[in-house]
Amino acid sequence: MKLQIKSYLKANIWVLLTLTILFFLMFLSLYYLSVKHINLLIIIIEVLFGVMALSIIFFMVLSLNTYNKGSIKWLLIKPLKIFNNLFYPMLNIVSNIIRIDKEQLKLYFIEINNILVQSQKKKFCPKDILLLIPHCLQNSNCKIKITNQVTNCKKCGTCNIGELLHLSEQYGVIFHVVSGGTFARKIVFENKPKMIVSVACERDLLSGIQDVNNIPVIGILNIRNNGPCFNTSVDVNKVEEVLKSIII
Questions:
Q1: DSSP conformation letters of 170-189
Q2: Do 134 and 232 touch, CB atoms closer than 8 A?
Q3: Domains of the chain: which residue ranges?
Q4: Top CATH class, 126-246
């Protein structure tokens, strides 16, 4: 079983256990206190708990099935996306309390997001697609400033920026190298893309996907052979495959 699935399952089980404990504590409190209409309150709480628990189980199974199949029926895309947006913060809190690999949990949600976006099978004009790349892909010894104007890149081959610039020119998509989340949000606001292809680490990808919830994002994980935020790289072929799949 993949580590991403293990982390997701473990987090879900702990959420269900926590809700169950809270339910019984509330049930006992109402039972031993002199509360008017206690039977009605208990019934309401039982129904709410049942609906919540069944919803979590249903969407957990749906999410795992989507992850394993790599696709989902279009009618279920929106409900699962809404559930993930609402439920991830709860899983994240649980992962902070117990021993769950948070990076694997993030990877799981990034992969599910990619599947949901690609399952819509939408195509876009190149001018409506934004390719966002983190500054850490640039070779640390390079003195050329590319965050304001990526075409300053000399395509020397010491990092992936030149290859990605070539791809953007070949397919006609908007291409920007960003130095952080604030700059990335500014670029998105200014360009108003209909589709974003983003390269980053797990944390930045997931936060970016959540920040622009109204715009579909396909996230591609960067390669960190030299540690985080320093001389990272990316599988350029993977970026090209994604662009080919979404361009009209």
A1: HHT-EEEEESSHHHHHHHHH
A2: yes
A3: 3-119, 126-246
A4: alpha beta
Token couple for 190: 């200014």
Do 119 and 147 touch, CB atoms closer than 8 A? no
pTM of the full structure: 0.90
Give pLDDT tens digits for 4-35. Answer: 999 999 999 999 998 888 888 877 776 666 55
Say how many C-beta atoms besides its own lie within 10 A of residue 120's C-beta: 13
Q: What is the pLDDT of residues 199-246, one digit of tens each?
A: 999 999 999 999 888 899 999 999 998 888 899 999 999 999 999 999
Give 93-124 as a DSSP string. Answer: HHHHHTT--HHHHHHHHHHHHHHHHHHT---B
DSSP H/E element including 130:
strand 129-134
| Count of helices and strands (H, E) across the chain | 8, 4
